[in-house]
Design brief:
Elements: H1 25-35, E1 61-63, H2 74-83, H3 94-103, H4 112-115, E2 117-118, E3 128-132, E4 140-145, E5 151-155, H5 158-184, H6 188-192, H7 196-208, H8 213-226, H9 228-255, H10 261-264, H11 282-296, H12 303-317, H13 319-330, E6 346-349, E7 368-369, E8 373-378, H14 383-397, E9 406-410, E10 421-425, E11 431-432, E12 436-443, E13 446-453, E14 462-464, E15 468-474, E16 480-488, E17 490-496, E18 499-502, E19 504-512, E20 523-532, E21 535-543, E22 546-554, H15 564-570, H16 579-586, E23 593-599, E24 603-607, E25 624-625, E26 652-654, E27 658-661, E28 668-670, H17 683-696, H18 701-711, H19 716-720, H20 722-729, H21 737-751, H22 769-791, H23 793-802, H24 829-839, H25 858-873, H26 877-880, H27 892-896, E29 901-902, E30 920-923
Parallel strand pairs: 5-12, 6-28, 11-29, 16-25
Antiparallel strand pairs: 1-2, 1-30, 3-4, 4-5, 7-21, 8-20, 9-10, 9-27, 10-30, 12-13, 13-14, 14-15, 15-23, 16-17, 16-22, 17-18, 19-20, 20-21, 21-22, 23-24, 24-26
Length: 929
């Protein structure tokens, strides 16, 4: 689609330049006039909904930009493209969300709902905008409120309640749901067009979950069969939910108020209404779940890149010293890392074995990525399309997966009210429409309000119940291992437990042609994956001269549907009555998440995921041989099940004084797959602020929200690393005027808080613009100058593949791309911090194996820092911020800004940078059942 501009992964998509000229100006008016006649669904204003037990006492709030309404008719899309008008409730949560950046310093409890919305159960009578009994049913009612249009679904039967949830989901996200069921099947280009972004999206996700239709159905069958009564109830809920989705499809098709993207992509005719919107089926929901799991809940991978950097280190320093250097950069269990569980708890997992066994490190120069795309024709055969495929492969195979979201939870012992306070939510990126949607669902065995991924909203996935709230952050512990399968006979047979066995070939053939939405020229290709018992093939190499394929085995592979049971439990007020019940519920979720809980008296934490029990001596950091001695304990390859670490071995806690998480290390000795859990992590931005609040006591919803907001505007490098850099520079007078001026600007910025904030609300100019520009230019220069001479270019490059050097808000090269909000997760800040402190002679726990800045000489290090600082200060804004399809060169604020990446036909304006959850709750319960 033309509104997906040419970036190759989900997080790199852009907002449109516009539709083709014939859809603009006067022509739009003519088209719109003919499209305003379709019937809209009949709704009426009515009395208030009857709220069930609500123990929040008006102290629960939430926000989810840009708005609840993610569907738009063709007329609404054309008006938006031509004149910028928005459908009702299309972006009414975007402004309040954006305004917190300027409004947080004076935030008080009574002003919270200026920037959030009331998340109480029910809708007051004077706030009811519409009441609908979907498909004429008498057992469910959907009430929408005037302020935001959130659906409040109340059913008298379980079936009716879930039918209403499905109907409301389709009302708000039908097009997005359709997009992602095709993404999950690797069929997006055939459905929505061959734009490079669409090609990259389907390639990235299908590589990780190359399922057949039988695989998808088997997941449902297995989940139901192994979960007893709850499994059978889940299937009944899904069936009712799908009936509601399909009822809306039929109603909107007949009434001609379906999403306009179906016309623009050629699936429906705007004049005759010819064409079909396919009904949803149960396997579609599994395809959707596979996308969500790959995006946010599957930690691990990267073992081949780890092996390559280890070999580079050993090549430079020798095996013993090279291994020592590699381990110091890996920071598996860094003693200076910020922890979520900070009371000394230890949860050993994926630790380094004393005597590693079964390692299958590649021969130097032998590794090649397994190709995914074959038989390219037309526009799929261009150089741009090939580049798209390479980027998608890199995103799919790295261990630096999207680890986003944050949480701040304080126990009642340290709050003003004596009740716990929580500010938490998932950082899922910014899209139009949003991947998540809000709802309240009330029915037999169901009572919750919050956010769910579109198309999976039979239950609230993150939100609140009657007297408790919960949320999650991505945890990233390693549930993906790489196996070296020895080839036999040819490149598509391998030794499986002594027998030469054929690999299974899975293919997707996609073809597209130009549409109004996407003018990409006609093209086609075939995606081909070779699957083994040990997972899909990711790389080819030789090990000791033997030809091997490296495969990736994920514990949640073929099991994305299993987590439905845990979410069902979280929505059940009869199940969750306290922190232990909450922990029991999330133990049924196999996504790798950190889960947080708060009620009126207690807080709790649990780390979920199916953590496989590895064979003794296996190092999870590197590929191992595909042999029984090195397989997961109890592994059944047919069902991909294994022995998993027990719940008690997962990081967990009840009533710690406070919890923070920003995808940092969970607990001592609990290793995560991504690199970068060292002395400086963005989690420190939360830890430092919350620790001070707790020490002072009297924490409130407002003070905890202020802490979150301030952390979300602070430059991590400036707050936690630059002071030591300036200490080295300041060890002698700075005689160069340009360097001295740069130092002064940086010092002034640090003194004012090291935040990237506007001079005044809406100015679109940073208060410390020069200092910010200098640091953005300086960081990559100083990192390279500090480390490359000592490491050598080969090892330095290998380490940058393990961990990017920077993820500033304007950086388009990090894992999250540009204009994505999320920043400062992946970078070399810990390395710089430890190295500079070593140069200064300060104590460093868990130091790097060597000192790099200036070869360890304080004087040489100072010269290096001054030289790169002067070079950075001389760079113009246009050089530092070169511009892109969103921003002109030199526009610093715009370079940082957040863009709601379009997944449909509606565009939204940019908002200023904030590093915070997309969906966010601010909660404090005043009583308990």
């Amino acid at each position: 689609m033309s509104w997906r501009t040419p970036r190759s992964t989900l997080d790199r998509q852009r907002t449109p330049h516009g539709f083709p000229g014939f859809l603009k100006a006067a022509s739009v008016c003519v088209l719109v006039a003919g499209l305003l006649s379709p019937l809209s669904p009949a709704v009426t204003a009515s009395a208030a909904t009857t709220a069930p037990d609500d123990h929040c006492g008006g102290q629960c709030s939430d926000i989810l930009p840009p708005g609840e309404n993610g569907n738009a008719t063709l007329a609404q899309i054309l008006l938006n493209q031509a004149f910028g008008t928005q459908p009702s409730h299309g972006e009414d949560q975007l402004g309040p969300y954006a305004n917190l950046a300027a409004g947080y310093p004076s935030l008080t409890t009574d002003k919270i709902n200026t920037f959030f919305q009331d998340a109480s159960f029910g809708v007051p009578a004077d706030q009811v905008a519409s009441t609908l009994k979907p498909a004429g049913r008498t057992d469910v009612t959907i009430v929408r409120d005037k302020k935001t249009g959130v659906p409040h679904i109340t059913g008298t039967t379980r079936y009716g309640t879930e039918f209403g949830a499905g109907y409301a989901a389709a009302q708000d996200r039908l097009w997005l749901m359709d997009v992602f069921r095709h993404v999950g099947r690797g069929q997006l280009t055939s459905f929505a067009g061959g734009a490079p972004a669409n090609q990259g999206l389907e390639q990235q996700f299908w590589r990780n979950a190359p399922y057949t239709e039988a695989d998808l159905q088997a997941q449902i069958d297995r989940a139901v069969a192994t979960a007893g009564d709850r499994g059978r109830q889940a299937l009944a809920d899904v069936d009712a939910y799908l009936a509601g989705v399909n009822a809306y499809i039929d109603a909107s098709d007949g009434g001609r108020y379906f999403p306009g993207e179906y016309v623009l992509t050629g699936h429906k005719d705007s004049l005759t209404n010819a064409g079909t919107i396919e009904h949803f089926k149960v396997t579609d929901l599994v395809a959707l779940a596979s996308v969500v799991g790959a995006l946010f809940g599957s930690g691990g991978g990267g073992e081949v890149n780890n092996a390559l950097s280890l070999l580079a280190a050993q090549q430079k320093y020798g095996v013993a010293e090279g291994t020592k250097v590699w381990e110091s950069f890996r920071e598996r269990n860094d003693p200076e890392a910020v922890l979520t569980l900070h009371d000394g708890q230890r949860f050993p997992y994926a630790t380094r074995p004393d005597d590693p066994r079964g390692e299958a490190l590649p021969d130097p120069g032998s590794v090649t990525e397994e190709p995914l795309v074959f038989d390219r024709t037309g526009s799929a055969a261009t150089a741009a399309a090939n580049t798209t495929s390479k980027t998608a492969a890199s995103s799919a195979l790295t261990s630096a997966r999207r680890g986003m979201s944050n949480a701040l939870v304080v126990s009642g012992a340290h709050t003003a009210s004596g009740h716990p306070v929580a500010v938490f939510g998932p950082q899922t990126g910014y899209f139009a429409p949003q991947l998540l949607m809000l709802q309240e669902i009330q029915g037999p065995g169901l009572s919750a309000r919050g956010a769910s991924f579109a198309g999976l909203s039979m239950y609230v996935e993150l939100g609140r119940g009657q007297d408790y709230a919960w949320s999650a952050t991505t945890s990233g512990q390693d549930i993906i291992d790489t196996y070296a399968v020895e080839l036999c006979q040819d490149d598509h047979h391998y030794l499986y437990r002594g027998t030469c066995t054929p690999m299974e070939q899975i293919e997707r053939k996609n073809a597209w042609k130009p549409t109004v939405a996407d003018g990409t020229a006609a093209g086609s290709y075939t995606m081909r994956v070779w699957r083994t018992a040990y997972g899909p093939v990711a790389y080819r190499a030789t090990v000791g001269g033997k030809k091997v394929a490296y495969t990736t085995l994920r514990s949640s592979f073929l099991h994305e549907a299993d987590s439905i049971i845990g979410f069902q439990m979280l929505n059940d007020p009869g199940y969750v009555k306290g922190p232990q019940d909450f922990q029991s519920a999330v133990q049924h979720i196999n996504y790798t998440f950190n889960w947080f809980y708060a009620d009126a008296s207690h807080t709790a934490y649990y780390n979920s995921g199916d953590n496989p029990v590895r064979a003794g001596g296996v190092d999870a950091e590197f590929p191992v041989w595909a042999q029984p001695a090195y397989e997961w304990r109890g592994w059944d390859p047919a069902a991909n099940t294994a022995d998993y670490t027990p719940p008690s071995a997962h990081p967990n806690s009840v009533d710690q004084d406070y919890y923070i998480s920003w995808n940092n290390k969970q607990a001592e000795e609990y290793a995560a797959a991504p690199w970068g859990e060292g002395s400086v992590h963005r989690g420190n931005l939360l830890e430092d602020r919350v620790r001070k609040l707790v020490a002072a006591g009297g924490v409130t919803r407002a003070s905890l929200t202020r802490a979150m907001a301030e952390a979300g505007l602070t430059d991590l490098r400036a707050e936690d690393v630059v002071p030591d850099l300036l200490k080295v520079i300041g060890s002698a007078p700075v005689s160069d005027p340009a360097a001295a001026a740069a130092v002064e600007k940086l010092r002034n910025w640090l003194a004012s808080g090291a935040r990237r904030t506007e001079t005044s609300a809406g100015s679109k100019t940073y208060a410390d613009a020069d200092a910010i520009r200098i640091l953005d230019a300086w960081w990559p220069l100083l990192v390279e100058a500090e480390f490359e001479p000592g490491l050598g270019s080969d090892l330095y490059t290998a380490f940058t593949r393990n961990l990017p050097i920077d993820e500033a808000p304007s950086a388009g090269h990090g894992p999250t791309g540009a204009h994505a909000g999320s920043s400062f997760q992946y970078g070399w800040w810990s390395y710089v911090d430890k190295d500079i402190r070593a140069v200064l002679g300060e104590p460093v726990r868990g130091p790097l194996a060597r000192t790099y800045c200036g070869g360890g000489s304080p004087g040489a290090c100072r010269d290096l820092l001054l030289g790169t600082l002067k070079e950075a200060a001389a760079k113009t804004a246009a050089q530092v911020y070169p511009g892109d399809d969103q921003c002109p060169a030199g526009d610093q604020w715009c370079a940082d800004s957040i863009v709601q990446r379009t997944l449909g036909g509606i565009k939204h304006g940019k908002i200023g940078w904030q590093n915070r959850p997309t969906y966010q709750q601010v909660v404090e319960f005043t009583s308990h059942r």
